[in-house]
């Protein structure tokens, strides 16, 4: 069973990843506009978030392909190399969007806000990770890997509006 299938089959993991992770693989419809990779490689929608953003697998292959996220406002970022790496990121720092500098301090501040609203968040996260057979990295490890992927490999995954050809802006700042 693939990790995406495992998520869909486990209500607790699916619920945690849908919120606060903003990753819902039960929703796989198209992006808000037609998009293509500048390289011409294939894009496959694998999940949506609650605000119109889309998660794509890039290129040919299975769940080991790079994962690109595009928001509904013209921003995009390569987040992970493979679905397992993406899910570990979302387990560790589901608030990655609230960490523009990708720092541990930003993550801690965001975590504090989330925990005020959802005091059982870490217990839910740990249950989701266990159900999926994944280890949760530390916030520092997850953010370091996100930085490495987004600013290393990310340049090779420029997302373009298919009609106008304009490039999406980088969601993350180095």
What does the model show?
The chain has helices spanning 3-9, 11-18, 83-92, 104-117, 121-132, 139-151; strands at residues 35-37, 43-48, 54-58, 66-70, 75-81, 159-161, 169-170. By secondary structure, it is an alpha+beta fold. The strands form 2 sheets. Strands 2-3-4-5-7 form a 5-stranded mixed sheet. β2 and β3 (54-58) form a beta hairpin. α2 (11-18) packs across α5 (121-132). The longest helix has 14 residues, at 104-117.
Gist?
The chain has 174 residues and is an alpha+beta fold.
What is the number of beta strands? 7
Average pLDDT number: 96
* Proportion of residues in extended strands: 15-25%
Global Rg = 15 Å
From the helix content, strand content and strand pairing, which structural class follows?
A: alpha+beta
Query: How far is the first residue's CA from the last residue's CA?
Result: 36 Å
**SSE series:** HHEEEEEHHHHEE
Shape: globular
Spans with pLDDT under 50 lasting ≥5 residues?
Answer: none
Q: Count of helical segments? A: 6
Chain-wise SSE layout:
Layout: H1 3-9, H2 11-18, E1 35-37, E2 43-48, E3 54-58, E4 66-70, E5 75-81, H3 83-92, H4 104-117, H5 121-132, H6 139-151, E6 159-161, E7 169-170
Parallel strand pairs: 5-7
Antiparallel strand pairs: 1-6, 2-3, 3-4, 4-5
